[in-house]
Specification:
alpha/beta; seven-stranded mixed sheet; 14 helices; binds pyridoxal-5'-phosphate; about 375 residues; single chain; three-stranded antiparallel sheet; Aspartate Aminotransferase, domain 1; 14 strands; Aspartate Aminotransferase, domain 2; 2 domains
C-alpha cells in the first residue's frame, strides 16, 4: 500500500534531532510560548521574507487574529474563494464578518482576480486569497485592486510555506499572511500550530496580545483576548523541521515533475503558473468519474485524497441564501473532478512509478468505456 502521506518516515529521517529538541523542552519546562517559540518566530519570519511572525495554536487561529487585528468585525465583508478548506470561511465568521465569494481561475484554481472588483461593496474591508495546494494566488492584480479601493489583503498561506510569487516568498506579499503547521502541512508540527507573518508592527503587537488573553503585562488585560498560544514543544519541533524544509520542498517538486511527465497525456495535471514557484502541498489531477476512479485507486493500494469534494457555498454549515448551486461554476466543476495523489518527500522511485501506473491504468479503462466500440456494445 502506498499511503497518501507518511509522517512516520519523515520522523525516522530526523529522529535524533527531534528527540533531542523535545527532551530540551521537557528539561526547560517552557511548555507554552517560551524561548523555543520565540526563536522559531524569528527563524520563520526571516524564512518568509522578513517582518515578524507570531506563533499561535493553529492556522485557523492565525486567520481569526489577523482579521481581528485588521479591525474587521460585525457587518464587514471579506472577499475570498469558495474552493478552500472551510477554515478560511470559518475564521471570517469567527470575526463576525461576512464572507463574499468569487469564483476561481480554471487553471490555477485560485481566486480569479478578474472577478474580485465586481464583488466589492462599501462594506468590503479585505481580500483573503488562498494559496491553494501550495501555489500562490495571482497576487499582483489582487494587490492593485486592493490599493485602488483601500482594502487590506491577507494571504491564507496554510498550504504554501516557501512558495514564491514572482521570486518573492509568500508571507511577505501582502499586509499579513497566515500559516498552518498542522502535521500534514508542508511544515508540520507534532500537534496543532499556526502563525501570522506581517511586516506591520502594529498588527504584530495586537496579534501578540490577542493570542495571550489580551495581556500587555501579566494579569493586565488590555484587549478581550484568546488562549491561542503556541506550545513550546511545537516551537522546538518546527525549528528542527524548518532546517529541512528547502530539501523537502525540492523533493516534492521533483516528484511533481515526474508525475506530470508521466501523466500529462492521460489526465489534466497541475499547472505551475508563470508567476509561481509551486510547493505542491497537494498534487491534484482531474479525472472524469472521479469518485469511481478514487475508489479503484484506493482498492489498488494507492491511497488518494480529494481536496475538496464540496465547495464552501454548498456546505450545509455555511449555506448563504445569496449563493445557490450553479453560482460558482468553475469551483463546482473542479470540485467534482480533482483527485490528490500521494506525495511526500520520502517517496521512492518505485512508489512513484506504482502511482503513475495505477492512474494510467484508470485512464485507459475510462477511455475504453467511452470509445465508440464500447458504447455501441451498450444498449
Ligand atoms: C489547513 C488550512 C487551514 C487551517 O489550518 P489549521 O492549522 O488546521 O487550523 C486554513 N486554510 C487552509 C487553506 C488550510 O489548508
Amino acid at each position: 500500500m502506498i499511503p497518501y502521506l507518511d509522517l512516520k518516515a519523515q520522523y525516522h529521517s530526523i529522529k535524533a534531532e527531534i528527540d533531542a529538541a523535545i527532551a530540551a523542552v521537557l528539561e526547560s519546562s517552557q511548555f507554552v510560548l517560551g524561548k523555543e517559540v520565540a526563536a522559531f518566530e524569528e527563524e520563520f519570519a526571516s524564512y518568509s521574507g522578513g517582518g515578524q511572525a507570531i506563533g499561535v495554536n493553529s492556522g485557523t487561529s492565525a486567520l481569526h487574529l489577523a482579521l481581528l487585528a485588521a479591525g474587521i468585525g460585525r457587518g464587514d465583508e471579506v472577499i475570498t474563494t469558495p474552493f478552500t478548506f472551510v477554515a478560511t470561511i470559518a475564521a471570517i465568521h469567527y470575526a463576525g464578518a461576512v464572507p463574499v465569494l468569487v469564483d476561481i481561475d480554471p487553471v490555477s484554481y485560485t481566486l480569479d482576480p478578474g472577478l474580485v472588483e465586481t464583488a466589492i461593496t462599501p462594506r468590503t474591508k479585505a481580500i483573503l486569497p488562498v494559496h491553494l495546494y501550495g501555489q500562490p494566488a495571482d497576487m499582483d492584480p489582487i494587490l492593485e485592486i486592493a490599493r485602488r479601493h483601500g482594502l487590506l489583503v491577507i494571504e491564507d498561506a496554510a498550504q504554501a510555506h516557501g512558495a514564491e510569487y514572482n521570486g518573492r516568498r509568500v508571507g511577505s506579499l501582502a499586509d499579513m499572511a497566515c500559516f498552518s503547521f498542522y502535521p500534514g502541512k508542508n511544515l508540520g508540527a507534532y500537534g496543532e500550530g499556526g502563525a501570522v507573518v506581517t511586516g506591520n508592527p502594529e498588527f504584530a503587537n495586537t496579534i501578540r496580545k490577542l493570542r495571550n488573553w489580551g495581556e500587555s503585562r501579566r494579569y493586565s488585560h488590555e484587549l478581550p483576548g484568546y488562549n491561542y498560544r503556541m506550545e513550546g514543544m511545537q516551537g522546538a519541533v518546527l525549528r528542527v523541521k524548518l532546517r529541512h524544509l528547502e530539501r523537502w520542498t525540492a523533493g516534492r517538486r521533483a516528484i511533481a515533475a515526474y508525475y506530470t511527465d508521466r501523466l500529462k497525456e492521460c489526465c489534466v495535471t497541475p499547472q505551475q503558473m508563470p508567476y509561481a514557484m509551486h510547493v505542491y502541498h497537494v498534487y491534484a489531477i482531474r479525472m472524469p468519474h472521479r469518485d469511481a476512479v478514487a475508489q479503484n485507486l484506493n482498492a489498488a493500494g494507492v491511497q488518494v485524497g480529494i481536496h475538496y469534494p464540496i465547495p464552501v457555498h454548498l456546505q450545509q454549515a455555511y449555506r448563504d441564501p445569496r449563493y445557490q448551486e450553479g453560482h460558482f461554476p468553475v469551483a463546482e466543476t473542479v470540485a467534482r473532478q480533482v483527485l490528490s495523489l500521494p506525495l511526500y518527500p520520502e517517496m521512492d522511485r518505485r512508489q512513484m512509478e506504482t502511482v503513475c501506473d495505477a492512474v494510467a491504468e484508470q485512464a485507459r479503462l475510462l477511455a475504453a468505456e467511452t470509445s465508440p466500440a464500447a458504447s455501441s456494445a451498450q444498449p
